[in-house]
Specification:
Length: about 325
């Protein structure tokens, strides 16, 4: 078994995006500045390895501000963004808060607010109960934004009032999925207002393009990422749709399916935007123990986006 050759096509770009890097940096800098513990509302990014690492450094993760017993300690809001009410609650508790919302999510929040002010009723294309969706819908008064999750809902959607309508999208969706939903909405509502610029983030788009580029050449495709990471789950779907029906998510509890790999000659590997590169390296090391591995990194685009942490943390 040891000597069976195995070719790995390593998708690039993969892994951390600028928003995730900034969010992790914010937690680390906050611990450095304020000392431990600092609180984080919701997982800072959807990855167990990252969350556990930050816990070890002095972060305490909570789902709601009410769970925080020591309100003299700072609280950080996760990269996914929060409803407007949350910073207001933090102010009422006299808490110091640091917002680690990804700037691209903040852009969608501002866009939604501006459209609402301009008299539009909004549709948000996204997944129910995802923290980003909760955060975006929570920017506007109740009843002024509706969620559409799939093509079926887009076909049945009925505006509640006679206002002009507009749409925004969750940033971590698949470009192809939203394309079809948007087309249905445009066909049904020819005057619907589009976002000024695509809401789906550059990193989501690039990682999906990179996976599409190699999936059809692979017998098996692995995406390293957490089960609750929307962009990681989308990458698995993209790989399946792009020609590799055997595509799997490798998360913290996954057993590596060596029997499937044994029957493969070429495998593809990518990772979600919240998965650290060490997890990719660990996975490849496991494979090197059993196979004679050759790696071909296939990069489709160089990423050089950087989002700076707030100045007050320096």
């Amino acid at each position: 078994m040891k000597n069976k050759p195995l070719k790995i096509l390593l998708s690039a770009p993969r892994g951390f995006c600028a928003g995730v890097e900034r969010a992790i940096e914010i937690v680390e800098k906050s611990i450095k500045k304020y000392g431990a513990p600092v609180y984080v509302r919701h997982e800072i990014v959807h990855n167990k390895y990252v969350v556990d690492d930050l816990k070890n450094k002095g972060a305490i993760f909570v789902e709601e501000l009410e769970e925080i017993t020591d309100r003299t300690r700072p609280v950080i809001f996760s990269a996914h963004g929060v409803p407007k009410k949350i910073p207001e609650d933090a102010k009422n508790y006299n808490m110091t808060y640091i917002d680690a919302t990804c700037p691209l999510v903040s852009k969608v929040h501002r866009e939604a607010e501006n459209l609402h002010k301009a008299g539009y009723h909004l549709i948000l294309i996204g997944h129910e109960n995802h923290p980003e969706v909760i955060g975006t819908m929570g920017q506007l008064p109740k009843g002024s934004i509706d969620l559409v999750q799939n093509e079926d809902e887009a076909k049945k959607y009925k505006p509640q009032n006679n206002k002009k309508i507009s749409y925004v999208t969750q940033t971590t969706l698949s470009v192809d999925d939203t394309k079809d939903i948007i087309q249905i909405l445009k066909d049904r509502f020819p005057d619907i207002k589009e976002p000024m610029k695509e809401d789906i983030c550059y990193a989501t788009t690039n990682r999906q393009m990179a996976v599409k580029n190699i999936a059809k050449k692979c017998d098996l495709f692995f995406v390293i990422g957490s089960r609750n990471s929307s962009n990681s789950v989308r990458l698995v779907e993209v790989a399946r749709k792009s020609g590799c029906s055997n595509s799997l998510l490798i998360h913290s509890q996954s057993e590596i399916p060596f029997d499937l790999i044994e029957n493969s000659n070429t495998i593809g590997i990518s990772s979600g935007a919240s998965a650290p590169e060490i997890l990719v390296n660990n996975f490849i090391d496991e494979l090197k123990n059993k196979f004679t591995v050759s790696i071909d990194e296939v990069e489709i685009i160089k990423e050089n986006v950087v989002f700076k942490a707030p100045k007050k943390l320096n």
